[in-house]
Amino acid sequence: MNNTKKYSRKCPSCEKEIFHTELNNCNFAHELKRTCKSCAQKNKLFSVETKHKMSLKKLGKSLSVKHIKNISNSLIGIKKQPHSKESKFKMSVAIRPKILDGTKEKLSIANKKAWQNTEIRNKYNDSLLKTKWIKVRTDKGQLELLEKLNNLGFKFEPNYQIKVNGFIYYIDGYDKEKNVVLEYDSKYHNKQSQKIKDTLREKNIIDILNPRVFWRYNAVANRFSEVHRSTQLTSL
User: Fold this and answer.
1) Class of domain 142-229
2) Which residues, including other chains, have CB under 8 Å from residue 69's CB and lie 6 or more apart?
3) Do residues 54 and 32 touch, judged by C-beta distance below 8 A?
């Protein structure tokens, strides 16, 4: 705080302390019950033209680290109110503006650049680990198959998480007690590009868990296949 600002008063709205350099100014503001800058901006209405000018002025400018930290600290402990049914309906029927090709390219580059940052990737992975599989959807028929197998004596857990080289993998079904892995392949797994990813995924899962058995279930062909079996333990 500046040492010259030695006279203070409280905002009549939020009771925040406001400092002044002159006693007369402090008393005058107190008599008029002037609020602080934050409270003054809350009920202030801007015209469409003014809002547009303010938007253009901020366009392209990035927030400072201190500003970002202040915003983050101000939101701690604040719980968002759930949307009403009316608000949800308005959002569902709202016509969203089309994203331009140039904007899509910029977003893609920004996402790739952020994902290459180890610190950002670790923060994302840590948040997923804390929320388990809350953000991961299951394929159609996956849970039904796991339920049938569990009725036969297995204890498959859907979307089991493992961390490999800074990345999170979700195993469609994993029985931790028997150390059995099951991957549920829906239609898109038949694509050649996905098959290459699945092969790498299989290797990483086997290296980490060394499962007794690694099964793949093809939902289209309705067929099981065994892609790995431990050489030490051959029976379940």
Assistant:
1) alpha beta
2) none
3) no
Residues in the chain: 236
Domain ranges of the chain: 1-59, 105-132, 142-229
Q: Which two tokens stand for residue 17?
A: 């302390």
* Dihedral pair phi/psi, residue 38, rounded to 5°: -65, -45
pLDDT digits (tens, 9 = 90+) for 2-41: 456 688 899 988 888 888 888 888 888 889 888 888 888 8
Question: Closest by alpha carbon to 213, among 202, 221, 198?
Answer: 202
Q: What residues does 170 pair with on adjacent strands?
A: 161
Nearest to 168 by CA among 206, 204, 212, 140: 204
CA distance 155 to 178: 8
Which residues make Cβ contacts (< 8 Å) with residue 169, sequence separation at least 6?
A: 161, 162, 163, 201, 204, 205
Q: For residue 220, what is the DSSP state?
A: T
pTM of the model: 0.48
208 phi, psi to nearest 5 deg:
-80, -50
Question: pLDDT tens across 118-145, in order?
Answer: 888 888 777 766 665 555 678 888 999 9
Give dist(CA 44, CA 54) in Å, integer. Answer: 14
The amino acid present at 93, given as its one-letter code, is V
Q: Are strands 213-218 and 180-185 parallel, antiparallel or unpaired?
A: parallel
